[in-house]
Write a sequence for this structure.
């Protein structure tokens, strides 16, 4: 309790932006000093540090080290040990293929627990600090909020999945591949309106692309279900946990199958999966999505003749890109989406990060022009529902307004659901209900062939 570790977000240059550093200060406010920092701007990797957790004896901290992205290389996140006495940095999990995140130190200081996306799951892992041995503690599920009992006898966490919201669980601190029984808690879901399975395929460069597929009850060869392709945001994330904002079971309850793939740029499949789409959003991410859709519509319980694609943020970008590349879908829903990549630069609240991947358009426009869907609007014929919040600072409202205007002036059947008070996410319960009802009405019109029925709430 004598020291405090904290992050300092330091400006490196006007052209580059900011980077996280670690500092420590005594509890009485004296002795403030730098613990871990990297100010390099030249060749070679550059690192940011954040998320420090003290060892019990205060000899050092366990922290996150981020390898910052460049135009050529995707970022990487790993757990390191930083010694208080001299600031020496030691990697804790050597050659771990995925991003290790959210470290928690055991009370005896002998091990660190962390989580990491892996093949559509998010397990809890344990690394022994002395030997470096890594143990996977959990099998199925998406885990978060890991904490260790004061005596080290148990590990507690929240576990959710595509099929169930978060529930607290208790884990043995060393056992392998556990399937813990949930602890008593509210919010248990007794049944779902369908079933969950997995789909995968191998794409041209040898990568395996996999997805969750939620199927409505009764879907069969005699009664195949219409399909909605749900494209996740991020883009560096995974379809591996429960979501209230984008909940597939609400569509499943209306008879739709929902395909939730992890294309190029997704986490949990090693660096190569992210690198495959780095700076080329319109290339491998798109072909991966089409490949996993192809194998899914071959199933006898899926109706290939009734399909839609949906996505938000990066997923909205991909929905827009899909619209410019194919007319295979009957409808497309695009939420909080990027449209004009050049205009997006400098107005998003993540502009420096964005330019490290997509480049500064004042210096080079090649990458932005190759990936910007707005230049291909004349190729769109699929009906589109555009959704955007006015208080969105990650993808500002101008992207949605320009997208809708471009669709209208090119004669594309389209609608615009505008939220004057919402941001990148639709958070107000009433507005969320409007979101779902509008999406379902749009799909009913264009996928099911029903008459457009304006939702009562709007």
């Amino acid at each position: 309790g004598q020291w405090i570790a904290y992050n300092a977000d330091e400006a490196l240059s006007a052209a580059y932006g900011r980077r996280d550093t670690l500092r420590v200060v005594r509890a009485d406010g004296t002795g403030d000093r730098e613990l871990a920092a990297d100010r390099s701007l030249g060749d070679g990797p550059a690192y940011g540090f954040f998320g420090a957790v003290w060892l019990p004896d205060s000899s050092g901290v366990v922290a996150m080290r981020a390898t910052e992205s460049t135009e050529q290389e995707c970022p990487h996140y790993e757990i390191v040990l930083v010694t208080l006495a001299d600031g020496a940095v030691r990697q804790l999990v050597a050659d771990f293929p995925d991003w290790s995140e959210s470290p928690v130190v055991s009370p005896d200081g002998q091990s660190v627990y962390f989580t990491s996306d892996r093949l559509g799951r998010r397990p809890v892992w344990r690394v022994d600090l002395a030997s470096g041995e890594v143990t996977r503690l959990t099998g199925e599920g998406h885990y978060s909020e890991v904490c260790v009992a004061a005596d080290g006898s148990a590990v507690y966490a929240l576990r959710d999945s595509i099929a169930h919201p978060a529930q607290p669980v208790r884990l043995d601190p060393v056992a392998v591949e556990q399937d813990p029984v949930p602890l008593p808690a509210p919010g248990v879901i007794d049944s779902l309106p369908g079933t969950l399975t997995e789909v995968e395929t191998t794409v041209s460069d040898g990568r395996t692309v996999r997805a969750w597929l939620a199927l409505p009850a009764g879907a069969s060869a005699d009664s195949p279900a219409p399909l909605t392709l749900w494209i996740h945001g991020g883009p560096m994330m995974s379809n591996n946990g429960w979501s209230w904002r984008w909940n597939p079971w609400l569509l499943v309850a209306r008879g739709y199958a929902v395909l939730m793939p992890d294309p190029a740029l997704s986490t949990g499949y090693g660096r190569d999966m992210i690198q495959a789409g780095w700076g080329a959003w319109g290339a491998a991410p798109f072909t991966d999505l089409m490949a996993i859709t192809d194998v899914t519509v071959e199933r006898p319980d899926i109706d290939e003749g009734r399909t839609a694609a949906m996505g938000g943020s990066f997923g909205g970008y991909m929905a827009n890109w899909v619209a410019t590349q194919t007319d295979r879908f009957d409808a497309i829903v695009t939420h909080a989406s990027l449209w004009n990549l050049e205009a997006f630069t400098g107005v998003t609240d993540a502009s420096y990060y964005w330019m490290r991947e997509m480049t500064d358009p004042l210096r080079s426009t090649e990458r932005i022009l190759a990936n910007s869907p707005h230049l291909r609007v004349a190729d769109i014929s699929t009906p589109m529902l555009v959704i955007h919040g006015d208080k969105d600072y990650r993808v500002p409202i101008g992207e949605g307004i320009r997208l809708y205007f471009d669709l209208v002036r090119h004669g594309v059947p389209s609608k615009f659901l505008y939220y004057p008070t919402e941001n990148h996410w639709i958070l107000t319960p009433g507005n969320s209900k409007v979101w779902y009802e509008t999406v379902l009405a749009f799909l009913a019109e264009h996928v099911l062939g029903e008459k457009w029925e304006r939702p009562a709430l709007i």
In short: The chain is about 20% helix and 35% strand. Residues 3-171 form a domain with the Neuraminidase fold (CATH 2.120.10.30).
